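Chapter review: from sequence to fold.
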Amino acid sequence: MTSGFPLLDQAHDALRTVTAGASDLLATTPCDLWNVTQVIQHAAGDQIAYASFLTGGPGPDFDPFNPDGNLAVPAAEMIEDAVSRSAAAFASIDPEAAEVPTPIPPNKMPARQAAAAAAMDAAVHAWDIAKATGQPSPLTDELAAALLPTAKALVEPLRAWGAFAPAVPGTPADSPAADLLHYLGRRP
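The token string follows.
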């Protein structure tokens, strides 16, 4: 299923691909305290949370911000369920809607920005998984350039709550992917 938001569909595909290719689910990731399994749980929980806010349906049955590393189903199945729910929820809204509910403050935003926020989450966690498992980066410069404005609009207030690490200094020669990753506290 497609969401009606190409940026989100691209990010969902990236998350699906790297999860399916992840062989070592216990590998450490760029998310300091989490292994691959925990990042998968977190990424799945975030996509389910977007779906829940948009539809009023059930949210994740676990805490995405305190993943325990125990999967009830295979990782690829968990991600497929989550991104399918997210895509279906976004497909049910008008892309031009001025305000839709979201799981991140301010808990409402324009539909396109909400889809970009969900895409940013999926794409960056896909990068985390790829980096941890030795896979090629799914975060293209085109995708990163499209996501950076959303990151800059939403992330700063969330850093105070620990939702994002402090930005890492980059260089003027950085690629758009490196710019986004640095802004989100990662070291590409």
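Two observations follow directly from the output. The domain at 6-139 is CATH 1.20.120.450 (Four Helix Bundle (Hemerythrin (Met), subunit A)). The chain is about 55% helix and 0% strand.
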